[in-house]
Description:
The complex is a heterodimer of chains A (323) and B (249).
Chain A: E1 7-12, E2 19-24, E3 28-33, E4 60-63, E5 76-79, E6 85-90, E7 96-101, E8 105-110, E9 115-121, E10 127-132, E11 138-143, E12 147-152, E13 157-163, E14 169-174, E15 183-190, E16 194-201, H1 234-243, H2 260-266, E17 287-289, E18 293-296, E19 302-307, E20 312-316, E21 320-322
Parallel strand pairs in A: 13-17
Antiparallel strand pairs in A: 1-2, 2-3, 3-5, 4-5, 6-7, 7-8, 8-9, 10-11, 11-12, 12-13, 14-15, 15-16, 16-18, 19-20, 20-21
Chain B: E1 29-34, H1 58-64, E2 107-108, E3 117-122, H2 126-132, E4 138-144, E5 147-152, H3 157-168, E6 181-185, E7 190-195, E8 207-211, E9 216-220, E10 225-229, E11 239-240, E12 247-248
Antiparallel strand pairs in B: 1-4, 2-10, 3-6, 4-5, 5-6, 7-8, 8-9, 9-10, 11-12
Amino acid sequence: MINPSPVSDIRWLPGSENLFIASHYDGSLIVYDKEKEDSPFAAEQTPPTQGFSNQPPYLLTRKSVTSQNQKLNPVAAYKMSNSRINAFAFSPSGTHIAVVSEDGTLRILDFHNEQITDVFPSYYGGLTCVAWSPDGVYIATGGQDDLITIWSVADRILVARCVGHHSWVSAVEFDRWRCDDRSYRFGSVGQDGRLCLWDFNIGMLRRPRVGSTRPSVSSAYPFGAGGSRNASSTTLSKLNSASQNSERSRRLETVSTADDEERDGLGDGVDLSDDVMHVVVSRSQVATLPPVMSKIIDEHALVGMTFEEDYVVTTCKRGMFVK
Amino acid sequence: MIPPHPSDNPNPNPNVLDPKPKPPESGVKVCLAILAPRRSHTRLRRVTTSGNNTTLPPSISEEAEGPSGFSSTSVTTKSRYGESNPALAMIPTKDSKDPLKRRKPKNNVAKSNSSFLSRALIHENLQKKLNERSPEGAFGFVNINRAMQWFDLSSQHKVCIRELVMEMLNIDLSQQADPLVKLLFTKAHALCTDFNNFSKTAQHLDVVIGFNTSDLMWWEPVSCKYARLNKNVRTSSIFRSPDSNNFRA
């Protein structure tokens, strides 16, 4: 037995026949090979007793993918915190994983390089579900704060909070058939039995009365730009390069040279010793988004949803429903 | 009163304030699988307005839009996880020469005498049903309490779902929504499932299931084979069977 705690989520690695990742209730993310036997797992790095999750490097690589010892499972094992991972999702490019957990954080893991690039807090409560936009520019999370939160990966900021559920959000999913390069359609279901559909368009966001006019310019967002960054964090600069104009460059894969000076300029007046950990943004600084459709479709708590080209499947605690 | 058999679920405590932690459950979750080739997640069809249905069949309109939009975001340039590690390189075997022939898990779900998997109900015309169905239709892998069921959602869509709802409400109204395969687990509740979109062929589907007992199962439903990973020997009911001196695990 490699990990004794329940499995909260499981996904095949994109483009891999054999490897899949399971997240466990103890905060572990473990890569398995379907054809390999279990080993009595001995961590190659032992965990510190407590509190490691809120200090750099935010991730404990208990077995690295570069380990030469690959005859048996696990292929790799990571631990992010001591609290339960509720869900995770691969970026469309397959290189990053967004992980949400009961401790109320969204962590972005560059798992090819085995490092955490961002840790974002929820408004309050645990985060329960997560989805990437089909182009990899945004992440939507749903949580126990009854909110869907949209994060810009490249800008590394909170973009909008979506208010519409009356209870915990249990699943969020982008409708990739109804997204284009400007607007995004996504849906969510919650414990309130409600199915909400949302249309998100960065240009159409209703701004809060006090605050900046554009979410991608981060003066109103104290944590928007992470200050100067050393050159070794290649993925970060890759992300940042895409961020220089998130409205136009829509792909994580966009490779251009990162302009560190410009990043420094954006971070003016903000002294952040640590650019991975982000702080909660006040309500007055964040745009809110209402749903375009909100309907109670089930008397039971809904737990899952999937979009298909011409229908939506939602599942509740006791059954399944197709629209 | 006879206590419940170890393979039975313990009697539910009528006291809702029962302080004993219950094993985690996730409710019904469905994992859809469509065999027909599809746009990958990075490809995105441009939809000018929602409901703007083109008259072209999807395959043609997709090709026509090939160079525009996001479709140039190809997966080919990306690095593969762990590619720098020679220990993870795939060892070429006899099987790997034929890309359509994939290795299957070892154990048969029907002939298993594991105490983890208590029963497998396989539709008697499984192969026939699989041959007759359209690859465009969706399969659904659905976990309901201690059961994992494999449905063919392409057959009479709405009807099928209606029956499904009935069945999940434990109202046995009809046999029409027969699952292709239903796996019943002794104690474990499946919490999550994923279907491998990359390796799918008509003869081979890779499904992984994660359980609340920490067990993982790799299941190839077409050949009805499975393998277990991260085997939790402790919680998967080690018990002494009354008529034997051996432990069964």
